[in-house]
Amino acid sequence: MNFDKELDARGLNCPLPILRAKKALAEVGSGQVLKILSTDPGSVKDFAAFAKQTGNELLSTAEAGGEFTFFMKKK
Amino acid sequence: MDTKKMAIIATKGTLDWAYPPFILASTAAALGYETQIFFTFYGLQLVRKDLSGLKVSPLGNPGMPMKMPFGPKWFKSINWNMPNAIQSLVPGYENVATSLMKMTIANNGVATIPDLRGLCQEAEVKFLACQMTVELFGFEHSDFIDGLEYGGAATFFEFAGETDICLFI
């Protein structure tokens, strides 16, 4: 998937992935896509909840070998 | 849509209890909530300039696991809980437990309290300190970080009365 910015939140735990994502989203324009890498299993539900509450669109969630990849489109 | 609001009353002054207010406030701010924390009684410790005095208090706290942050996995999984009578007799027990807790925090990619507090300030979480407790405990305003507001219960309710979420921690 194409993306405009990547955030490496691997090794970070709650709530840092969300806080870093919020910051990274502020640096991209509306409609642009942020790719997020995380190793926090809690981040799967957290990013879904974050998207739902902020109006940013969670395009996809994938897991491979304990690593999670999210694509989020800025509102 | 109106901005959602959250208020937290932070009343605890130990390292472990410093986490819930700052984690919830920073996350709420990231979700777009207008957020305020009212620091009162021991919670004032969380807004001091110097946070190095924050410690965990394992004494009389059976819910707190005492595990080693280093060594092989089997060693890390041992729970070293000590009877209260021994904890109270060993000098520096709290300091050792605090050092171990700080190592565990770092090993798990959990933010430090100064970091989380900074993230709250960056996200414009409003900090309100209880003026009555400041005086009761003999603190000076110069003991605390800049940007604090000082007020009492009525000041807190001015904001709390309009919130969607209000928590006592």
Order of helices and strands of chain B: EHEHHHHEHEHE
Helical amount of chain B: 25-40%
Query: What is the tally of helical segments of chain A?
Result: 2
Low-confidence stretches of chain B: none
Helix proportion of residues of chain A, in percent? Answer: 25-40%
Helical/strand content category of chain A: alpha+beta
**Straight-line N-to-C gap of chain A:** 18 Å
Largest pleated sheet of chain A: 4 strands, mixed
What assembly state would you assign to the polypeptide chains in this entry? heterodimer
Largest two-chain interface: A-B, 15 and 12 residues
What is the CATH class designation of chain A?
Alpha Beta
Tell me the Rg of chain B in angstroms. Answer: 18 Å
The main pleated sheet of chain B reads as: 5 strands, parallel
Average of pLDDT of chain A: 95
User: In CATH, what is the class of the domain at 5-53 and 112-168 in chain B?
Assistant: Alpha Beta
Q: How are strands sequenced across the largest beta sheet of chain A?
A: 1-2-4-3
Global geometry of chain A: globular
What does this structure look like?
The complex is a heterodimer of chains A (75) and B (169). The two termini of chain A are 18 Å apart. Chain A has helices spanning 16-26, 43-54, and strands at 5-9, 33-38, 57-64, 67-73. In chain A, 31% of the residues lie in helices and 35% in strands. In chain A, a hairpin with a 2-residue loop joins β3 and β4. With 75 residues, chain A is an alpha+beta fold. Chain A is globular. Chain A has a single domain (5-73), classed as Translation Initiation Factor IF3 (2-Layer Sandwich), CATH 3.30.110.40. With 169 residues, chain B is an alpha/beta fold. Chain B has helices spanning 15-30, 73-76, 84-89, 93-107, 113-122, 131-136, 153-160, and strands at residues 5-10, 34-39, 126-130, 149-151, 165-168. In chain B, α6 links the parallel β3 and β4. In chain B, α1 runs parallel beside α5. The interface between A and B is medium-sized, with 15 and 12 residues.
